[in-house]
């Protein structure tokens, strides 16, 4: 049984400051002034959608529509980014205390910064990582007030207390099970960190000490309970395909093969596995605005759980996705949500998910839209 102990870290932090001889984001030329890039205005920071296109990385962002205009669709504009076409965008977040200030993460050690709501983006370098032979994949970013956290692969943890002006690198134990795939800023000097093997760690002192919230990895739990009746759980050695956190701290994760899912609530010692009640394998799962679950299956199909909270009962919701699979859903409120998927599919609901309307804004974009934030 693989037990998760609580690692303790003490270190001299390294500050990741902007080079003095480089221009700040506000001094950089506006992207829209570079004709070869043909930039569009990044209008809002309240939600965002990232994708991996065929030609160049892009993000789509919704306009801040007033109450009279919220009933209309086509609220998204395409934003071109000055990065290599091979970069995969993985996460985006804005500083709550300055909603014009945000960061965009990706593969190939990509961290981009905006200070004008996304109208211009500049690369941020990480001096402490440049001397190493690793090419970091930055997986997740989260802010609470001016404090922010970034995790990546190979194991790297960055922390800021000044809205991202400087970043400190916090060393991590080499004994952490799995790769860090998610982090959530939860309060002053506090965060939750999740690995793809199901380890959940909690810190309340800027990441210098971490406490294990679960007693063992998911593999150990499933292999120990081979009589649990969970299809595909016996001799499980896989990792999470996706993991999502609710505002009240509950987690839902999909197994790497999509044949079952797991949930965890604060205070539980182990992840709880659940059989899927749908024939097709699970693509992704997450939380609705009312606390219930949404579920996407491979090959297309959207399901909503019955009632709120954790449930194994789901009902299919008809959607017009043109035959392409839906890859992610993001709720802005209990009633409004957006869904995104293959070949630029964008769908919107204003009644909690009962019905969905297709937005044609991205129909002509040769890209799969992977994430809604």
From TrEMBL:
GO cellular component terms, semicolon-separated: chloroplast; photosystem II
Chain segments carrying region Disordered: 1-34
GO BP of this protein: photosynthesis
Residue ranges, compositional bias (Polar residues): 1-15
Role, per record: Essential for photosystem II (PSII) biogenesis.
PANTHER family: PHOTOSYSTEM II STABILITY/ASSEMBLY FACTOR HCF136, CHLOROPLASTIC, PHOTOSYSTEM II STABILITY_ASSEMBLY FACTOR HCF136, CHLOROPLASTIC
Name of the protein described by the UniProt record: Photosystem II stability/assembly factor
Organism per entry: Populus deltoides
